[in-house]
From TrEMBL:
Composition skew (Basic and acidic residues), residue ranges: 495-506
InterPro entries reported in the protein's UniProt record: Spore_Ger, UPF0353/GerABKA_families
Source lineage: Bacteria, Bacillati, Bacillota, Bacilli, Bacillales
Alphabetically ordered keywords of this record: Membrane, Transmembrane, Transmembrane helix
Species of origin: Shouchella clausii (strain KSM-K16)
Protein name, UniProt field: Sopre germination protein
Amino acid sequence: MPKQSKQGRFERKIRKQKRSSAKTLEELLDLCRRSNDFHSFKQADDNPFEIYYFSSIVKSNVIHEQILPVLANKQLKTLVGVKEAIRVEETKIEHQLAKIEQALMRGEVLICLQQAPTEALLVPAEQAETRSINPPEVEFSVVGPKEAFVEPLSTNINLVRKRLPIPDLVITERIVGHLSKTKVAILHIDGITNNQVVQTVTQRIEDIGFDEIIDSSYIAQLISDDSNSIFTQLIDTERPDRVAAMLAEGKVAVIVDGSPHALTGPTSFVEFFSAFEDYFLPWPLASAFRLIRLCAVLFSILSTALYVAVMTYHYEMIPTQLLHKLVSSRSGIPFPPIFEALILEVVIELLREAGARLPNKIGQTIGIVGGIVIGTAAVEAGLTSNILLIIVALTALASFTTPIYQMGNAIRLIRFPFILAAQWLGFLGVAACFALILSHLLVLTSLGQPYLAPIYPLRVTDLKDSFFRLPFNKQKKRPVSVRAKKRKRFSSSHDGNHLKKRDIEE
């Protein structure tokens, strides 16, 4: 027992030391010396300068090629002289301890005078391990750009800036997270984006008190209007072209350092079912594909629930010939329709989760082989009917048509309340469940803007790019729901309608 008490006191002491903050530069350096990757050295005993840095996050060539040759000059006696001699951008002398600590942990080299330990010269030498820009994986498109965001914030901003090369593109950075010190960039176009939306996003990000921000999904959950809703209120995208297009509409984008995804808002429920590839196709094709996705989502939500309701309460609605097929397919099955449906839905979700968590090649094999083997075995064993197996398979297939992954997860989840409601009250239960979800969507907002716009409140002009997409020359104004400062996208003299195509003979 005494040994355990001594160990407990030691652990509490260590935790207290970790929580304590340094009051002076010497205390900060003493805290850093506890790490094996922290280095400090002098070139010579008569040299007044000392160098401090973390070797794991600093480029060694900057130290050997830019810093050490300068410090070898014995005529330099002040930090100002060293700053002028070092040819590295953004080198500066800092007096505030908090900024010195942030710079040191960010990958900058500290140069201090032993006679003046209250200030330091900061030399940027960050070593960032990055990967190359690859095609989008979640929002892949056959037509259009093949660039996706990566983890470094500077690279992601570059991908957006080269698509919007205008000085009105304003980027504001904030540091979020007491432990992670994550850089978060807020993007908007001055003169187009509503100032109230920008202030709302900025204030919510500044008010974040969470200690660790790893990914943009953290920000999405912390700044959403209703964090308890299963419906995401910000579009999470990996495409820089989509971010640029939404900024041009008057929306705000949030990019997090270390995350290959960006957040955009305010958004509406209908936007989650429009793929960005729709804008690269002729508008009749894009409108048809968008309607197919919406119908597929409705089928995915309601098909299994309607099967349970019909087989439990409303079998008289089934035509006689189809009723014989259903009765013969269910003959010998010991479970009621609700258990039969839940078993298949759970099996489909298990296969989907297993395929997503396993390596790529193994996951595809598990999804295909597992679905065929388990489905065939369940029908032959008399645990489920072959008709319901077809319905559930089509339901799972239809749920994959949702372009935004987060909305696809919500669609997967709300199928189960509909199935339970169908077992409870039949069609009336399905209608009641639909009414509850609709009432939730009616009160939901995205950065203060209605989530069901342009359906409610009705914005007729915004319907040009909702369930269907009209030609670009018909979309002369930005959406009303965004409340952009500048509504017109181009003047009527540039819509292209005044130009008539003529033959050569004419």
